[in-house]
């Protein structure tokens, strides 16, 4: 290692720690260059070993984790042999908990590579020897490492089965709760990973009694994630039908029964126990048939993911004959599988299922009419999913479907009813008003019958379903209001412990019904309802009651507005008391010589605070706390003038909630801050509406003060929060705030927000580095082929935290561009090199689409010439038209159309090249309507920009075969602008289409929710065309 290289790395590591965006960005760029060389890993290891500064050591370890997988095999064998014992020594000597964790993570990365090759012979003795360590962090690391390595190299671990079982046994009996918790997870991983090793499994199964002891302790300490994970392992063991398991299962069953019957245990844990018992019941008897059912269910889920990733013509259409065969088969497993497969296909093949809705509906009706309960149960669930994913086409058959679904609800078996009820509730939720009104009588009659049953869970479903009906039917629900209120009146005031969940649901129900009747009918009820609600929160101290009562408060304030003035003060007090309460938090103080352990679950409800205290929180209390914070935001938005007096008191506690240890609370807090800003902006509005680019516009002192506080909180979250979900929500809130208050109010914070957005694009925001593993950069070309193969197998993009983070950061960037106008162009130009890296084929298609769409939207809203960046963007767009992903094709059409109207340098040659790429998409039957809509929008913008140089007559002939716009309503403006232009410049070509244009635009005005300005322009054109007929 050269001295100058070490000095350069140290300088840039220090740069990362500077509170200056430009310095951080410069350091990032330099390190990206430096880290392309394998020798850079040696330099980082040097700093981990010898730097006197904790921050430098930790940062070096974080960067090393990101690059070592790629660099490790490129290091010389001498270097590798030196590094391995060095890290064992560093780990054993390190006393700082956070740094020790980082060193441990590096060791695991090395072990993943070296152990399968048999190259790190000292690691396994070191690992199992940690059982004797006096440091609980060492013992917890041991358990965590075993769990991790079992996912990558079960063979090496299996070779040491006796030592493994001994270590796990000691871990389960450890005096420290965190070690026992880690051991519990490690045992579960071992049982799953080594299921094929008969002798090892036999030894592991003997640990079940000890596992149950740890689980009892976990339940007492409300460590629900560990308990739920263990029940999942028990499920797998039960399904394995292994004879070795049978000796221990009676104890697990007895334990599960005790857990399920204990009403004082959290509901999520009890549910897991019930699911295990259900598994035991299902797997008793004919195992061959059940194996087939399980196989079909798994295949259905696989088809879902394939349907989401590949064209439906490769998935749905080849399966149509199979579905028909299953419907006609006498094999009951195929009858059970039929609705399961249809349910899963509806996620990814929705458009093709719409085109074949007659077949799909008949298959579901067939399943609903079967005698077998499992078939009908699966069919009900499929009905719920189809109503959501194939909406509204599926509802054409509601008159045939409803009688069969309702018939299932007459079954005397409550367990069966509950499953059908769950599906029916989801079905009702997705009904529009016009769809619910014709069947509301039969629905309410059935719900009334269910309310008379003795089973409390059935009653809860009935109340939830009535809520859904009330919300969907609005004023048409009014005739049922009195009877429902009469039925639930006693529940609203009950204090019977076993009925409190029904009380909670009753308040949810009455809150939903408030909008269904005239205000004058509901208004007299408010005093008694509010008294009962307030009393329940004050006296019952039940989290579920509090949660639903808070939501009830929000609905009434939202509906009655300032009429609720007399109740605002006591409501706010209860909400704030709950929001800041820690009654549901369990604190476990460790002795001074204990060090907080490795946290392998970023999503759990357990964390460590700075005083070495282990924290956990009940799910029910967490839901209550989140409901309180959410309702504070609802009240701020609904009655801003009434809320203003309480703003200061709320703000005092907001900062603590923004750093609360559970991410759900931080998530809701970000939304609440946004609501506070909206309220203050409404009460103290600017003198005039904001103008694009006017960064000097005056701002009220009240809003200015709140913004200073709010953006300090936002900056803290963006800089230090580890949860991508919370950071994503923060970006989303900032985007909405920018759109609301404009450039003048947001000016002091744009640089910091823009810098954070850029860090997301570069993958360097703290939440990305704190939780990420390996990353891919330009030096990792050898991995690109594997990435391409995996690209189409990923799960739902919208649920991916990395996609969500980029999506909301992009929304933030678009809103900044919207308020900045042409002044944003410099930032865009500086960001493009980083954005282009995310458009490579090795990047997941959802990320590529997000980046291309963001750039296009920014160029659109800036409203300035972008000729200087057109060439590079044009190539990205043209390449995108050839992409396998329809998402990428769609946004590429949008980008190319925007470039045509925003770049003075765009020429006829560009337009011709785009048309050659777009017309195959436009004329294909393969793509969803939204893709066709963007292709139409692209062609229209090309005509706007090059109308005198393109064959407009031929283009229109093709275009009108695809109009009108069906899904992406924003493209209607592009269609209008083109048609309006042609009436002024090429009347003879456009005039023959006038009848079709009038029909199309009149339909759009009547049946689609258009932007007000666009609708006004369309009305004007239609009036003119009608008069000139």
UniProtKB/TrEMBL annotation:
InterPro entries: ARM-like, ARM-type_fold, Importin-beta_N, Importin_beta, TPR_IPO4/5. Residues 599-612, 777-800 have a biased composition (Acidic residues). GO terms for molecular function: small GTPase binding. Residues 586-612, 771-800 are annotated as: Disordered. SUPFAM superfamilies: ARM repeat. It comes from the Eukaryota. Its main location: cytoplasm. One of its GO terms (cellular component) is cytoplasm. The keyword Protein transport applies. It is found in: Cytoplasm; Nucleus. Keywords: Cytoplasm, Nucleus, Protein transport, Repeat, Transport. Gene3D superfamilies: Leucine-rich Repeat Variant (1.25.10.10). Residues 27-93 form the Importin N-terminal domain. Pfam families: IBN_N, TPR_IPO5. GO terms for biological process: protein import into nucleus. The keyword Lipoprotein does not apply. This is Importin 4.
């Amino acid at each position: 290692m050269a001295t100058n290289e070490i000095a350069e790395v140290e300088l840039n590591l220090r740069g990362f720690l500077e509170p200056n965006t430009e310095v951080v960005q410069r350091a990032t760029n330099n390190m990206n260059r430096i880290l392309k060389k394998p020798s850079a890993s040696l330099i980082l290891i040097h700093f981990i070993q010898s730097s006197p500064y904790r921050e430098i050591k930790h940062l070096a370890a974080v960067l090393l984790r990101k690059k070592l997988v790629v660099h490790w095999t490129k290091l010389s064998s001498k270097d590798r042999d030196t590094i391995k014992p060095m890290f064992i020594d560093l780990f054993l000597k390190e006393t700082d908990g956070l740094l020790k964790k980082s060193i441990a993570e590096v060791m695991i990365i090395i072990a993943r590579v070296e152990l399968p090759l048999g190259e790190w012979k000292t690691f396994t003795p070191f690992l199992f020897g940690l059982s004797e360590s006096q440091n609980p962090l060492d013992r917890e690391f041991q358990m965590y490492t075993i769990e991790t390595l079992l996912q990558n190299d079960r063979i090496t671990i299996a070779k040491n089965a006796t030592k493994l079982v001994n270590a796990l046994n000691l871990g389960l009996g450890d005096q420290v709760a965190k070690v026992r918790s880690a051991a519990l997870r490690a045992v579960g991983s071992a049982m799953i990973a080594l299921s094929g090793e008969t002798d090892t499994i036999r030894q592991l199964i003997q640990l079940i009694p000890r596992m149950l002891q740890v689980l009892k302790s976990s339940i007492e300490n409300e460590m629900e994630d560990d308990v739920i994970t263990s029940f999942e392992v028990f499920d797998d063991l039960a399904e394995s039908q292994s004879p070795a398991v049978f000796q221990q299962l009676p104890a697990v069953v007895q334990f599960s029964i005790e857990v399920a019957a204990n009403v004082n245990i959290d509901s999520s844990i009890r549910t897991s126990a019930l699911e295990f018992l259900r598994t035991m019941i299902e797997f008793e008897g004919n195992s061959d048939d059940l194996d087939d059912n399980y196989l079909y269910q798994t295949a259905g889920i696989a088809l879902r993911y394939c349907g989401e990733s590949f064209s439906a013509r490769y998935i749905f259409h080849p399966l149509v004959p199979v579905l028909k065969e299953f419907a006609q088969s006498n094999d009951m497993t195929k009858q059970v599988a039929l609705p399961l497969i249809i349910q899963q296909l509806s996620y990814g093949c929705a458009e093709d299922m719409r085109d074949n809705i007659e077949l799909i509906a008949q298959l579901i009706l067939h399943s609903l009419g079967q005698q077998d309960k499992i078939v009908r149960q699966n069919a009900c669930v499929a009905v719920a999913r189809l109503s959501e994913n194939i909406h509204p086409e599926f509802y054409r058959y509601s008159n045939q479907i409803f009688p069969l679904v309702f018939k299932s609800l007459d079954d005397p078996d409550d367990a069966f009813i509950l499953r059908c009820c769950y599906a029916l509730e989801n079905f009702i939720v997705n009904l529009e008003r016009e769809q619910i009104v014709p069947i509301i009588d039969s629905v309410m009659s059935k719900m009334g019958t269910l309310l008379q049953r003795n089973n409390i869970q059935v009653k809860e479903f009935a109340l939830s379903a009535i809520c859904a009906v009330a919300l969907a039917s609005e004023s048409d629900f009014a005739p049922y209001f009195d009877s429902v209120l009469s039925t639930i009146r006693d529940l609203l005031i009950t204090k019977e412990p076993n009925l409190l969940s029904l009380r909670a649901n009753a308040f949810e129900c009455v809150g939903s019904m408030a909008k269904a009747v005239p205000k004058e009918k509901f208004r007299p009820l408010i005093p008694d309802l509010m008294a009962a609600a307030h009393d329940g929160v004050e006296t019952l101290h039940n989290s579920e009651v509090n949660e639903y009562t808070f939501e009830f408060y929000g609905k009434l304030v939202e509906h009655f507005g300032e009429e609720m003035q007399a109740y605002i003060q006591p409501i706010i007090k209860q909400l704030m008391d709950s929001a800041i309460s820690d009654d549901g938090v369990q604190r476990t103080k460790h002795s001074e010589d204990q060090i907080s352990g490795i946290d392998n679950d970023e999503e759990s409800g357990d964390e460590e605070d700075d005083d070495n205290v282990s924290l956990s929180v009940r799910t029910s209390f967490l839901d209550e706390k989140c409901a309180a914070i959410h309702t504070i935001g609802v009240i701020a938005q609904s009655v801003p003038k009434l809320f203003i007096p309480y703003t200061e008191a709320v703000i005092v506690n907001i900062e603590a909630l923004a750093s609360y240890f559970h991410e759900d609370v931080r998530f809701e807090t970000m939304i609440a801050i946004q609501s506070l800003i909206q309220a203050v902006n409404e009460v103290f509005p600017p003198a005039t509406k904001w103008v694009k680019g006017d960064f000097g516009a005056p701002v009220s002192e009240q809003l200015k003060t709140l913004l200073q506080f709010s953006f300090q909180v936002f900056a803290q979250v963006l800089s230090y929060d580890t949860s991508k979900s919370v950071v994503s929500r923060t970006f989303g809130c900032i985007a909405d705030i920018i759109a609301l208050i404009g450039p003048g109010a947001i000016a002091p914070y744009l640089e910091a927000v823009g810098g954070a957005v850029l860090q997301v694009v570069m993958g360097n925001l703290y939440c990305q580095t704190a939780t990420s593993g390996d990353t891919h950069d330009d030096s990792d070309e050898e991995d690109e082929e594997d990435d391409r193969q995996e690209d189409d197998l990923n799960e739902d993009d919208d649920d991916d935290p990395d996609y969500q983070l980029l999506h909301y950061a992009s929304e933030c960037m678009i809103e900044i561009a919207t308020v900045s106008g042409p002044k944003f162009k410099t930032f865009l130009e500086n960001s493009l090199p980083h954005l282009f890296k995310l458009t490579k084929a090795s990047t997941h298609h959802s990320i590529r689409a997000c980046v291309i769409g963001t750039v296009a939207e920014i160029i659109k809203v800036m409203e300035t010439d972008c000729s200087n960046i057109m060439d590079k963007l044009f190539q990205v767009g043209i390449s995108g038209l050839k992409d396998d992903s329809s998402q990428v094709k769609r946004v590429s059409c949008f980008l190319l159309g925007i470039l045509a109207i925003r770049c003075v340098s765009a020429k006829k040659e560009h337009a011709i090249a785009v048309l050659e790429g777009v017309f195959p998409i436009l004329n294909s039957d393969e793509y969803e309507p939204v893709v066709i809509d963007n292709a139409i929008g692209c062609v229209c913008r090309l005509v706007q920009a090059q109308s005198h140089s393109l064959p407009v007559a031929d283009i229109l002939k093709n275009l009108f075969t695809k109009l009108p716009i069906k899904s992406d309503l924003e493209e209607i403006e592009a269609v209008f602008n083109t048609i309006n232009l042609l009436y002024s410049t090429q009347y003879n070509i456009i005039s023959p289409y006038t009848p079709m244009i009038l029909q199309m635009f009149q339909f759009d005005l009547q049946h689609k929710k258009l932007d007000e300005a666009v609708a006004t322009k369309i009305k004007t054109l239609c009036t003119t065309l009608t008069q000139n007929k």
